[in-house]
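Table S5 (text form). Sequence records supplied for joint modeling of the two-component complex.
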Amino acid sequence: MTTALHWSYLVAAVGFILALAGLSGPRTARQGNLVGAGGMLVAVGMTLGAEHIRNGGLLALGMVIGVGIGVPAARMVKMTAMPQMVAAFNGVGGGAAALVSVSDYMSHGGGAALSSGNRLAVMLGAIIGCISLFGSVIAFAKLQELMPTRPITYPGQQMVNGVVFAAVLAMTVGAILGGRIALLGAVCVLCCGLGVAIVMPIGGADVPVVISLLNAFTGLAVAASGFTLQNTVLIVAGTLVGASGTLLTRMMSQAMGRSLANVIFGAFGAVVTATGGAEGGDRSVRSTTAEDVGTMLAYSRRVAVVPGYGLAVAQAQHTIRELADLLESRGVEVYYAIHPVAGRMPGHMNVLLAEADVPYEQLKEMDEANPMMPQTDVALVVGANDVVNPAARDSPGSPIYGMPIINVDQSGQIVFMKRSMRPGFAGIDNELLYNDKTVLLFGDAKDSLTKLVAAVKVA
Amino acid sequence: MNQGFLGEFTIFVLCAFLGFYVISKVPSILHTPLMSGTNAIHGIILVGAIEVIIHADTTLLQAVGFLAVILATLNVVGGFVVTDRMLEMFKGRGQRRPEPEETVQ
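The corresponding structure-token record, covering 564 residues in total, follows.
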């Protein structure tokens, strides 16, 4: 490796760190991303220039295909589909890392010429990469609703996974000691299966956690490839991503009040639907009309909008902004109270609202929003459910107990916009629906919001 | 354990700490762009994929390298483009744009 190449890798590594540092605020974020992209360009360019290129045609073709698919996909993807896109990019990155690791093994006489330390790095890259690739494929399929989003479980599932994992472990030790390519192949196949098996039992509501976890996995697979190829920039970049994914995974689990192990092994939805819906079947709720809610909103001083994924599904983020603008023009203060797991991935709701041009300072994180709730006249809950369920705070028996929630029950009045009485993702009945302060507005979020806009105009 | 490995391992450990510190400064509002941005960054595996393909001397290795280059390129380019698209929406903090922009879906 030439000195110039080393320098270029340092430049790239610094670029990546600056890209992450830039994300500390919306002002600097975009520039940071460009700096990161610049670093990437330098590293790739210098790699291409540093050595005599064999298979140049094939290389160029591969890059053209990659750009040909990547750019249109990235430009056209809807913001609601961002989690799928991130899952897809996680998957291809993990796949590439696994392939790089495997090929290093192959090109060293089937591993025979590698030191055992290098074999370990190869195995780790291949294992984590394969899990990430196939886990991402399943996460993608679930998010895209190509397959059921509910947890898919069967008896003895964890036993089977455990056995497969033990086999992987044993074969990995064998491959490190013996340097046999057949074992590496078998490990890769098993890990592809393991990736599928890990994500299958995970329900829709837990997907934000899984995406973060797969993000961390791919980063670590890339770092492992860096050890294999003795390439520092791969180690730096992979480790940064691994750290980021790990941190986000931890934050997401905390925001759901559960441990990571519980998310991965708990098959949440499956357990809970059994207990949910048992109570409250015959309690009455108050439903209302858009006109009434419109009047209520128009004569409030302060309104909190609590958006959930239902808002995004209904593509209603533009309509809610229209409503907020209208209320603001009447002197009503409007803010959005955003739960960390609102949406399908960390921070997803913020992106959706930013896309609808909602001013950044109206977006309040949960910790900021909760103290404002007692001084809020109306809390408008649109397409959210579990994240406002007081059971998470008050009933130790509830499956979601311990999950931090947005305390809409402390506001003056609560308006729930719902399609039906169906419980949320977690399948738990929400006692807030039966609260005296609560009224329900049934219907599609977008239709209801459109009616609300009309109602506020005449109020 | 040789010197080279120790040096690499040092980098690994330091970067893990650096990563934790830098990323804990990212507000939750930007967590989605953070994920897609880190996605783009792990596309650096393209460098590894290029090394594979330019040293490939068998058809099998060429095939593996070729596939790796496609996947990694897709990862890098797609990751940076989509992150830029998102971050563009976050610019102009506090200034409400006068007319509603056309909404590209």
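Note: Residues 30-90 of chain B form one domain.
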